[in-house]
Design brief:
Chain lengths: ~500, ~100
């Protein structure tokens, strides 16, 4: 009798192996940075890259084992695809950070360790099929990010951004806890699928409480991915945080939120839930694009652009199903490549102390540095959604999934707001290519960068092009991810089918 | 535990709802980050109370276990939060959140 239970424990360990591997590598990085500060400059990024590669190997291995849901965490093909996207993003962040961290004297050992811990939280969020586990992932993602946002202690903007992010982030996570508690008291379970299934089959007479709980969880996740009207913190935090951290926040924190939303949305009740997501998506697309037009600071512009992209991504979540989730995963990958590219260019252009962050500072920069001019143009065209870049195909898949799922009105709105987006993205390119450089205005933008930064910039530009041209094999890969999400939902229901029947008796007994 | 059975679950739910609302209102009204933090703690503890009460009435221990996780996370959050507040106070000698408006756009 003891042998099978032992085996179950080993399987469960495999389910959480990738997250544990990344957290352990973060600890190694942290200790190495503390004990050998003299070598920290090159040792910690190398250890970080090694740890991320090791975690990717663990993820692929755990994915091949075909593990059953472990009750708290799932290792299905959705988790594998999602984890690999997060790990690719973390890998690029380390490469992009290197130049920035050296220039701004931020090379303390904990920088990369915090980034890896945060990424492990992102992986945990998307891998959890339980609200409490998801909360732990959310906090593991957020708490290191609060520290990272305030990492350049010399700049008061950085500290201000850390405090704003912290207060609003903690406020949002309190909503998450209370929402999870409401779901638990309404259905007797914190498992996403089981709780949703119990209400759907009306096993308990407390559906309104479940819906309120779910709405509060949605509010918390909407804060994290910056959906309108929960986006107020985004521009300030993105502007004040160190640029490399902003890039990480814009990609990994957003991706993690959407990974969690994909799992939660599948369990959401019909009707009011879809109306809620529809409204959030529409408001986010309109407001994000509208406010981006009037921005002069490039980091604020990218912050509002990231809000707008969250609106498009939510459309895929709303569409749901195999096509919708697959489109979300593809778009996240494309979005990661182009956003990291844009921020990598901004890191170089802004120069020491982040002096030149206004778009006007980049007048005529393309003539001084064709590399920066061309790559930035590619990233901006892709963000605007022009063919043949990755952004265009990402939007195409999202929009077609939304039309197929029966939301033509929202799709028309998305197309119209994308056209609005073309204006402000092209403005950056026009300033860089077509305007004369002005000598007297502001701090001069920099064009010189170490070899690594230029290589990363070129590689990201190639990736944006390649993801566009060879989009169908990548889409096949993300399709396998969305198929896994459906399969594990079915498995979770079958595993725990008899359990929730006890809940209503206990509840009505209590409220007598 | 006879006294416990006489308090209906609804009473616990209403109490935790009230605590949560008080916390949320305090967070939105007050301008001192330390008081805002206390309000967040109140909101988290409202959730904890609901978890424990629901677990008691459902006859399962899950809720009690979750409370430990939430308490740990809240402690970690406060540790980071107070460090950030101290760092800002040393630089600006004020921690009023209305003074934090260097970024506009």
């Amino acid at each position: 009798m003891t042998a099978p239970s032992l085996q179950i424990i080993t399987w469960n360990l495999w389910v959480s192996a990738p997250v544990c591997a990344l957290a352990a590598s973060a600890m190694v990085t942290l200790i190495a940075g503390a004990f050998w500060p003299a070598f920290a400059r090159w040792l910690t990024p190398c250890l970080a890259l090694g740890g991320i590669a090791l975690t990717a190997a663990f993820t692929i291995l755990a994915g091949m084992l075909g593990l059953p849901p472990a009750g708290m965490q799932v290792m299905d093909s959705f988790t594998v695809v999602f984890d690999l996207i997060i790990l690719i993003a973390a890998f690029i962040t380390v490469l992009v950070s290197n130049h920035y961290v050296t220039r701004e004297n931020l090379e303390r050992g904990e920088y990369y360790a915090l980034m890896m811990l945060s990424a492990s939280g992102a992986m945990l969020m998307a891998a959890s099929d339980n609200y409490v586990m998801m909360f732990l992932g959310l906090e593991l993602l957020s708490i290191p990010l609060y520290v990272l946002a305030g990492f350049s202690r010399g700049r008061s903007e950085s500290q201000e951004s850390a405090l704003k992010y912290l207060l609003l982030g903690a406020f949002a996570s309190a909503f998450f806890v209370f929402g999870a508690a409401l779901v638990f008291s309404a259905t007797g379970s914190t498992n996403i699928v089981v709780a949703g299934d119990a209400t759907e089959r009306a096993l308990v007479g407390t559906t309104p409480i479940y819906v309120i709980g779910l709405a509060m969880i949605l509010t918390a996740l909407a804060f994290k991915v910056a959906l309108v009207p929960f986006h107020m913190w985004t521009p300030d935090v993105y502007q004040g945080a160190p640029t490399s951290v902003t890039a990480f926040m814009a990609v990994v924190a957003k991706a993690a939120g959407f990974g969690a939303l994909a799992r939660v949305a599948a369990a959401g009740p019909e009707g009011s839930w879809t109306v809620l997501l529809w409204g959030l998506s529409a408001a986010t697309m309109i407001w994000g694009n509208l406010l981006a037009i009037s921005q002069n600071n490039i980091k604020r512009l990218l912050a509002y652009s990231s809000i707008a992209h969250a609106g498009y991504l939510l459309m895929g979540i709303l569409a749901g199903g195999r096509a919708g989730i697959s489109a979300v995963l593809f778009y996240l990958l494309a979005y990661a490549a182009m956003t990291f590219g844009a921020f990598a260019a901004v890191i170089i252009l802004a120069g020491r102390g982040d002096g030149a962050e206004d778009i006007e500072d980049y007048r005529g920069i393309a003539r001084r540095s064709p590399l920066l001019g061309w790559t930035m143009a590619i990233f901006m065209f892709s963000l605007a959604g022009l063919p043949p870049f990755a952004g265009f195909f990402g939007k195409l898949y999202l929009f077609s999934a939304a039309v197929e799922a029966g939301y033509p009105g929202l799709t028309v709105l998305a197309v119209l707001t994308s056209v609005m987006g073309v204006f402000y993205y092209l403005r950056v390119t026009v300033v860089m290519w077509m305007q004369e450089p002005e000598a007297e205005s502001g701090p001069a933008a920099q064009t010189s960068a170490p070899l690594l930064s230029r290589l990363v910039l070129s590689a990201l530009a190639v990736a944006v092009l390649a993801l566009g041209i060879f989009s169908s094999p990548v889409l096949r890969w993300t399709n396998s991810g969305s198929a896994g999400l459906e399969r594990s939902a079915e498995a979770a229901i079958q595993m725990t089918l008899p359990e929730p029947t006890n809940a209503p008796a206990a509840l009505s007994g209590g409220s007598r | 535990m006879i006294w416990n059975a006489t308090v209906p679950f609804g009473a616990w739910a209403v109490l935790s709802g009230l605590l949560f609302t008080m916390g949320a209102a305090g967070f939105l009204v007050r301008r001192d980050p330390i008081v805002m933090f206390m309000c967040i703690e109140l909101m988290l503890n409202a959730g904890n109370l609901l978890f424990v009460a629901a677990a008691r009435y459902l006859g399962v221990v899950d809720g009690q276990v979750y409370v430990f996780f939430v308490m740990t996370v809240a402690a970690a959050e406060v540790a980071v939060g107070l460090a950030i507040i101290v760092a800002i106070f040393r630089r600006k000698t004020t921690i009023d959140v209305d003074e934090m408006s260097e970024m506009r756009g």
